[in-house]
Amino acid sequence: xxxxxxxxxxxxxxxxxxxxxxxxxxxxxxxxxxxxxxxxxxxxxxxxxxxxxxxxxxxxxxxxxxxxxxxxxxxxxxxxxxxxxxxxxxxxxxxxxxxxxxxxxxxxxxxxxxxxxxxxxxxxxxxxxxxxxxxxxxxxxxxxxxxxxxxxxxxxxxxxxxxxxxxxxxxxxxxxxxxxxxxxxxxxxxxxxxxxxxxxxxxxxxxxxxxxxxxxxxxxxxxxxxxxxxxxxxxxxxxxxxxxxxxxxxxxxxxxxxxxxxxxxxxxxxxxxxxxxxxxxxxxxxxxxxxxxxxxxxxxxxxxxxxxxxxxxxxxxxxxxxxxxxxxxxxxxxxxxxxxxxxxxxxxxxxxxxxxxxxxxxxxxxxxxxxxxxxxxxxxxxxxxxxxxxxxxxxxxxxxxxxxxxxxxxxxxxxxxxxxxxxxxxxxxxxxxxxxxxxxxxxxxxxxxxxxxxxxxxxxxxxxxxxxxxxxxxxxxxxxxxxxxxxxxxxxxxxxxxxxxxxxxxxxxxxxxxxxxxxxx
Length: 521
What we know:
- The protein has 24 helices and 9 strands.
- By secondary structure, it is α/β, with parallel strands linked by helices.
- It is globular.
- Residues 4-30, 94-99 and 132-143 have low confidence and may be disordered.
- Keywords: Endoplasmic reticulum, Hydrolase, Lipid biosynthesis, Lipid metabolism, Membrane, Mitochondrion, Phospholipid biosynthesis, Phospholipid metabolism, Protein transport, Transmembrane, Transmembrane helix, Transport.
- Involved in inositol deacylation of GPI-anchored proteins which plays important roles in the quality control and ER-associated degradation of GPI-anchored proteins.
């Protein structure tokens, strides 16, 4: 979302004007370009009137688009990227190619980065070859792509990611980490999308750390690649790339909100500064922002990887934004995983920085995501006041009998798993505390599974029985799906999707009839 009707007030935002206003402008009188096109290019380069400017350029012929793109500066390209304009494909550099990088060369680059003891220890671990000295056929390419070394590289990337959350980003940029990440990305681009996605997540954190870091990325070799990745077939790559551009605009004070770690914008009405509603997706245990919300698997046909992004913008009439939270959770691991209170506090901070709570909010929650939503709203009265709806999809308000039966089969169960035991005191207190909250959320609805889930062998069970998934005083729908598929509709005609669609329409109607805020975009 951009500030107001214009993207930026040039002359006021001096933090970046010197960085980005150097793009070449067309000559009004010398090249014969239409004045509307000239004005559109000038507006984008100055960060003004983005919606109208992009509309003008998108109507041009292919040759005219290519010529106009050459006259856009870095700020304009970032605006195109954040809005996912079709012009991004024209702007992407077709000369981008895969870089063959030898592991010794990568080690030399990594060793030039100095952070802290955690990084140094991980680097030492990574430097130990997985090939024995007698294995003369073990090439550099083999080293880079062996599963053990892939795991080591992911460990290094996780540490880099954690350091971007601790104000190391500027230091990392100064030490050339952008070039190292680019080389690693290009090497694994065709063979390991998990590594590529993680690198993009690191970039999204780096560019959020101020104008210096944002400028370093957009003026690097990354820029052409990022524009190209906006049309990548992998949903996670595409969405994370858009997140990078949105965070660049935040660091340049073009946007007022940012997308922190583990938060992703799946959709926002284009160029809309004031959506009517923010839709927040909270997945369940062992789920994820890029796993839980996919269409139900069907081996006979291709399915969409993120149905809220693919279907809701087409079917919902109104201005809205969809964001998804991606938090780690597990069945086992003891106290190594954060508990519900810590997670709720962290997620609330992410939502606040993203502007969630400034207008009407609706939570769509699967399983444990519903417990997380309740804890977040207990902790934040201001967010609760603006929460119009909660859709609980197979949420274990009273736990699940399966958890107790299999507790002792799980090695070092996490606090998350313990909360799912029927009669768990922490879950009982959470439920009681949420019932006492005032004002009460106006619209709440329950969705319950009605098909048993396979546990092991031929044993099946209802993971969250109807009684547990029923929040008191709210309607209850039973859908013919097992637990994990309650949030994965088979198609747009599935009952689960129709429930979601109708619920969002009800939320929009409630917002329009009760809100005093002008939501025109």
